[in-house]
Amino acid sequence: MARGPDVFMAMPRAGQGGVTAVHAPRGSDPSVVIETLRLNKFYGKVHALRDLDLQVHEGDVFGFLGPNGAGKTTFTKILLGFVKPTTGWSYLFGQDVHAGGRQVLSRVGIVPDQFGFYPNLTGRAHLDFYGRLYGLAARDRESRIEELTKLVRLEHRMETKVGGYSHGMRQRLVIAHALLNDPDLIIFDEPTTGLDPKGAYEVRQLLRQLASRGVTTFLSSHILFEVEEICTKVAILNRGVLLKLATVRELKKEFSAVSGEQLEIVVDNPGTRILDAVRGTKGVVDLKAEAQRLTATIDDPDQVPKVVEAVVGAGGRIRRVVERQVSLEDLFLHYTDDGLGPGAPQKPVVPPGVHQAASTTRASRWKEGKR
Ligand SMILES: Nc1ncnc2c1ncn2[C@@H]1O[C@H](COP(=O)(O)OP(=O)(O)O)[C@@H](O)[C@H]1O
Ligand SMILES: [Mg+2]
Known about the structure:
This protein is α/β, with parallel strands linked by helices. The protein contains twelve helices and 13 strands. It has helices at about 5-10, 70-80, 125-135, 140-150, 165-180, 195-210, 225-230, 250-260, 270-280, 305-315, 330-335, 350-370, and strands at about 30-45, 45-55, 60-65, 85-90, 110, 185-190, 215-220, 235-240, 240-245, 260-265, 285-290, 295-300, 320-325. The strands form three sheets. Strands 5-6-7-3-8-9 form a six-stranded mixed β-sheet, with helices on both faces. Strands 11-12-10-13 form a four-stranded antiparallel β-sheet. The longest helix has 17 residues, at about 350-370. The site of adenosine-5'-diphosphate has 12 residues, from strand 2 and helix 2.
């Protein structure tokens, strides 16, 4: 059912206080797993989430990307019912957990940003305890724990006390715990933050493996390449404002249309014939040649095969093709510029070279910036 404009008129507005007294009519699309409507959260004067409208569909591997303080944890806490929105609505599987729909939480696996362990209990004791909480029968618990500990590669550490686990091992135990109830949706809140490189790598491998199984995944992260590698869709959040929501591919395509994408082709036999052929190819906006290396700037990544064909068609013997893809980091910095605040999408386009130089400093500042 389409939501009419009257629905929106009835909703409380940001900044006017009050809680979600009015129930918003819901769409009937069962493939929508997470939905929020004009979600706002104030902590005192801090406007942590602003008019957030977001939908996550069944099977999405959804990246929720934003720097520290963007509102990611607040958003997941609202979804799960731990924090009440100031205004607006949130739904999980069509149910409002803030209005009595808590039973849907049994379909959700959670890897929170912090998890309390009992250092003197073994890994098995932890999983067994939570398995009981979920109401799994003894035999199911045993087989499920065995299956999951293999998945997270802790099968040889199950009888060890968690106090002796590395941070990465603990995080993998939390992931096993989140999967105990065979969830239809898994929510990860910054699952690799604070892990050493090896631990983070292992958790990422696991995320990738889970994502490939088709379970709807919501991954909040401030690590750009993590979202880029694992997710199919991405929402960019900055200071509580949703700046972008699209597939990673769409975002890259849109961005390369304004900033250009670099394609490097190394040929054995450079020459004007090849250069002319590349220049004459649709989508090529700039071309530089240096010895055997041609660097073409293209405005559409879909034109890559055409450029390669042009080189071959002009008799070029290709040794190497490197596509310097727009990274999510480029994108993120394009959409969130400290000087421009939430309105950043309107920011004037910076030429690619300038953008690169600027992005390095801003990226490192951003990585350090804990609020
Ligand atoms: N319990 C709280 N009380 C007051 N302010 C909070 C609280 N939780 C979060 N905030 C503030 O809300 C904003 C969003 O925080 P958070 O959701 O933790 O962001 P993220 O998870 O993206 O780092 C930040 O400005 C943070 O300081
Ligand atoms: Mg957080």
